[in-house]
Amino acid sequence: MAFFLFILQFNLFIAVIRRSSCDGGVMVELVRSNITVLNVKALHDAGHKVHNIEHLAIIDAPRLEHIAVEDLTKMPKLKSFYITQAPLLRRVPPLPSLPSLRTFIITTSGLVEVPNLSHVHDTKTGNSSIPYLQAIDLEGNHIKRLAPHSLRVAADQVSLNLNLIEEVPAFAFKNAQISRLSFRGNTNLKHLDENAFAGNLLLRQLDLSSTKITHLPTKGLENLQVLKIEKTPSLKYIPSIYEFRQLKEAHLTHHFHCCAFAFPERHNPARHKLFELQLAMVKEKCGNIDQKTELRRRRSLPERRIRKVTQDLEAEDDMPTTSEETGFDSNDNDYYFDEPTSSENSDQFHAPIDNNLSSPKIAYNCASFMTGKPKVLCTPQPDALNPCEDVMGWSWLRASVWLVITAAVVGNVAVLMVLLTNQSELTVPRFLMCHLAFSDLCTGIYLFMLAVVDLRSYGEFFNYAYDWQYGVGCKIAGFLSVFSGQLSVVTLSVVTLERWFAITYAIYLERRISIMAAAKIMIGGWLFSVVMAGLPLVGVSDYSSTSICLPVESQNVGDGVYQGSLFLTTAVAWFTIVVCYVQIYRSLGGGGEKYGGRGAAAAAERRIANKMALLIGTNLLCWAPVAFFGVTALAGIPLVDVSHGKVLLVFFYPLNACANPFLYAILTKQYRRDFMMLIARTGQCNWLVERYKLATTPPPTAHTNPSNPAPLLPLVDYQRSQSQISKENGDAMF
Q1: For the structural domain made of 15-229, what CATH number should be given?
Q2: What letters, b where the CB count within 10 A reaches 16 and e where it falls short, cover 295-305?
Q3: Signal peptide: which range, if any (predicted)?
Q4: Which residues, in sequence order, are bridge partners of residue 226?
């Protein structure tokens, strides 16, 4: 048994050496090794002849601290070097010349800086026909900085993924020839120097996904073909498409960045104008491209502008480039062209390194010359939630929103001003009207914020989209929208219930809603509204998903439940309002038949019925369209996109905010009375106050004129008279 345990421990903690034939060479793999220094002695002790090793792999070496790189020169056939799971390996000395080396991989280890690989291919041997590295993979280490010239190499692919890199300094890849470069997953990477990629002659693919960069430099990226900046919401601005001469694919984070690529003339008008001038100059250099159209040339550039553009082109010619770098596939709509190389593969190193760059020239394939703007396959494409349009979208909508804002703000400010300055005893209706007016005023402020952003960013919203949608302004606007909607729903329900109690139980004073009870109810309504409006700020849905700052995007179950709760609250409130108003109407007579068809009673009921229908109708028009299209979207069947949904936003959603101050306050007798009292206290417009007094003074009665006493009425007529007074009181409340 003891012998068996010894063998087991030996297999677990001592090097396990496996040999296999691989392309005529030897592959050595040390698994779970206890070595502390990787050198020739360690390999000899394991029974290997180092001069035959082509592939060396160290897997799970918890004690490895140092690599004797000078001993690697004793492995002339070494093609691949691989180390993984070596947490104590902090640094690797500069590598010597290893002409046969093709892959250098150190992953999931403790490296804190990039090894210097600039001398790997300094000496060329006869069996080294392609002097470049196929892959340099340093993924999953603890690298924080890029040492100068450490990656001055010729490599097809360099991966620095999942490290701790904080910045890329200037000329970090100067004189390097790297085809594909990746920084994916460096969550601490925030700064890229303007010259971070300058001097890299062959960069074709760049991956900066899952970082925190806020700016993308363009020097050194002129020949980039694939750009990946996914899951990087911190990137505010994307450079003009004209800065990337050969870009074919762009995988980005924000929809509005693809809008910038789709509309370069609006994204950067100055750069677009320069592009047109460059096109004109290239057209001049190419000569007569189309015999049929060029005979009638319509454009003639001033000599001064031609001289300036010529100087720009000559400056570009002075840069150390190759025809392969500036050449474009003749099948693409680009503005520089060259004969395509048929032997290249986009997934491999693009061309052998040419050290003779003394006389570079740009070649133009005039037969393939086209004047169309460059086309890039860009994702994420603009969709229904994020179209390439302004906040309001249409001109008539832009004008209409200001009318709605004026009605909502002026009406509700007028109501608040009168109710809050009234010196009479505070009643429940006045108390509730203050809350309703404030909630509707918030809706007007929300629309005002959208309208201001729309005016400021007219014609080029995607240039302002980041600052707006991901800034504080959009969060405030979204909060105001949801808060005002929910508070308005709650307040309207309470107002309706209060009137139902006041009219249905007019003779039971103990059943009235008191100020204290109304205050407690409204405190609950405020808390509910604040919670519902605050949930998108803590990750339940999102205000930044659209330019109108509404939580309309549903990415998970939590978002769906939240949005469903908003619609359910609205539905319950509308049902409550309808039922209460029907009960109120029935309690007041239901058509005048109880009063023998008397004209006054019938007219009063018609007025009440019309006002009830108006109140219910405005609520229905405000909530029903938004709820209907919202529910269909939650069910996975969206019937309207954001572009058309903005019509609902301007004409239906704020309908209550515009109508409520008039229907519930301004058009009532009580508000007019309070308004005149406010004017009387100011001492202004006395003629208006006197006119109001004359219009509202009641005719003489038995109490005001005792010489003409009222006749006695039979009991039945008296009861009818009291019921009619109750009905008229109900009419006054509406």
Answers
A1: 3.80.10.10
A2: eeeeeeeeeee
A3: 1-22
A4: 205, 249
